[in-house]
Amino acid sequence: MPVIEVTRLHKRYGDLVAVDEVSFAVEAGEIFGVLGPNGAGKTTTVECVAGLRVPDGGGVSVLGLDPRRDAAQLRQRVGVQLQESQLPDQLRVAEALEMYASFYRDPADPAELIERLGLGAKRNTAYKKLSGGQKQRLSIALALVGNPEIAILDELTTGLDPQARRDTWSLIEQVRSSGVTIVLVTHFMEEAERLCDRIAVIDKGRVVALDTPAGLVSSVAPEQRIRFRPSAPIDDRLLTDLPEVSAVQRTGSQVVVTGTGDLLHAVTSVLARNQIVAADLRLEQSTLDDAFVELTGHRPVA
Amino acid sequence: MHAFGQILKIETRLFLRDFGSPLTTVVLPVALLVVFGLVPAARQPEVQFGDLSFIQYFAPSLLVITLAMSAVNILPTVLATYRERGVLRRLATTPASPAALLAAQLLISLATILVSAVLLIAVGRLAFDVPLPRHPLGFTLALLLGTAALLALGLLVAAVARTAKSAQAMAVPLFMAVMFFGGVYVPRFILPDFLVRIGDYTPPGVQALLDSWTGASPHLSHLGIMAVVAMAAGAGAAKLFRWE
Asked: Is residue A113 part of a domain?
């Protein structure tokens, strides 16, 4: 049973249509990605799910409840990490968590959470003195301190350095393994590919695709490409006879094989049978980046 | 209630931790009272002060410092900053309401004003023979209404300002007007008569404080204006205030 159901959601600000028509369902225990270019309507969508905005049309159901009507109940059960929300400069890590813990009926132990998020050494540090990654971890901790069933995390790693970003990712995987359903808003391909079980790609206020990361990639561009330099002359027919291969090209001493399915295995097997060594072997697969460009016509952010 | 208690505790700590806030609202007024009180001439009754000593005459203006700092400077700045940085929005996603934070800030302002008033009255009485307010009920009423009027103005600024910067831009002129007409920058006896009259009706109403402190009951018109300002600005703030 889905824990979040969004049906034909519509939201406008004056004349600007932020969310045109968005539908998706999030299953319990998954990491669900909401991916899209800036201004696609991602944040507005999750803000409607979090009950911070009133939709102009369509329906949102979270844990079987209405985010506006049952707001008080849902706030106990859904943790939200908002884009660009900060804390007072002088507020210390432990104080922030203890204060937020006091809001919930059945909170996590703040001290334990601080350790789990690697903020133990910073428990008495003022918010202002934390690094970007530490601020983000504190922000995630605040979203988790109420022991939520669902955590909505918006632009989790924007502005973090690569190491801090990777640390944050492993943290999110830990959180999921403790049974929390996670809705992750992002515009980073690598993040979506690494973390998400399923992804809704949103563009111009609509869902343009909804699938697993691998599914998104293969639906758009299933072709793979293998480049290598054979150690001995090779007959093209050896390769073109393989069912996986769709084309063979030569550029200088290099052979380029395009195809689908388990292409690499098929090609390397046939080379091995003919005692040919493939030097400088390279497999080029479509990535989520390619899929994203294909789906939205935008270049993803590096 | 548990949540509100925590918010109040943390906000109080933040107020005290921000060194400037307790310094300007509580320490500065009483320090000025001590400095002036140590000048012998300031303790002698003078005809131009209506047979009061200078420090007696000036004490209500010292209280105006606390009121102005707390209500129209610190309060709107803190609230606008919290809104700008998304602190209020974040609270709105939790079971605690951002209204609890607003209430905590108002309580801190009230407590600051109360502490400063008690300190000024006590130090004045014990160290410099400034009599206790002779019209305690009138004084309490004048202080309450003056405080309400200024807090409402502070909230109105916090409601209208979009950012901490624009809150400052609105709060500073208001703050300076309150301080000036409250006789803080220039003792009021030096001011021309019409400016003194304006000052009588400018929140927090320094004349009503002076009257009730030194003998007479405060003028109803002085108090009435404070009540009107409190209600009008309060209603405006309630209508315009946004959490985000």
From this structure: yes
Co-location of A67 and A30 in the same domain = yes
CATH number of A103's domain? 3.40.50.300
Count of domains forming chain A: 2
Same domain, A205 and A270: no
How many independent structural domains does chain B possess?
A: 1
User: Which residues span the domain enclosing A241?
Assistant: 223-285
Which CB contacts under 8 angstroms, 24+ apart, belong to A114-118?
A114/A141, A116/A174, A117/A141, A117/A171, A118/A167, A118/A171
CATH of the domain at A241: 3.30.70.100
Each residue's pLDDT expressed in tens, for chain A with a length of 302 residues: 799 999 999 999 988 999 999 999 999 999 999 998 888 889 899 999 999 899 999 999 999 999 989 999 999 999 999 877 899 999 999 999 999 999 999 999 999 999 888 899 999 999 999 998 899 889 999 999 999 999 999 888 877 788 888 888 888 898 899 899 999 998 888 888 899 999 999 999 999 999 998 888 877 766 788 899 998 888 888 888 888 888 898 888 899 998 888 888 989 899 999 888 888 888 887 777 777 777 777 666 54
Please tell me whether residues A242 and A184 are part of one structural domain.
Answer: no
Shortest Cα distance, chain B CAs vs residue A49, angstroms: 11
Inside any domain, residue A292 = no
How many Å lie between the alpha carbon of B21 and the closest alpha carbon of chain A? 13
Distance (Å, whole) CA A249 – CA B242 = 64
Residue of A nearest to B8 (CA): A99
- Are B209 and B58 in contact by the 8 Å Cβ rule? The answer is no
Closest CA to A258 of A234, A223, A286, A283: A223
Q: How far is A125 from chain B (nearest CA, A)?
A: 13
CB spacing of B85 vs A75 below 8 angstroms: no
DSSP-derived pairing of the beta strands A224-230 and A278-285? antiparallel
State which H helix or E strand residue A231 sits in. none
Contact A91 B14 (CB under 8 A): yes
Question: Looking at the structure, do residues A161 and A259 belong to the same domain, yes or no?
Answer: no
Which residues form the domain of B124? 2-240
Least CB–CB distance from B95: residue in A75, A91, A142:
A75
ipTM above 0.90, yes or no: no
How many Å separate Cα A121 from the centre of its chain?
Answer: 29
- Cα-Cα-Cα-Cα dihedral of A260, A261, A262, A267, to 10°? -30
- Residues 6 or more apart whose Cβ sits within 8 Å of residue B176: none
The nearest alpha carbon in chain B to A84 belongs to B86
Q: Which of A85, A87, A104 is closest, CB to CB, to B95?
A: A104
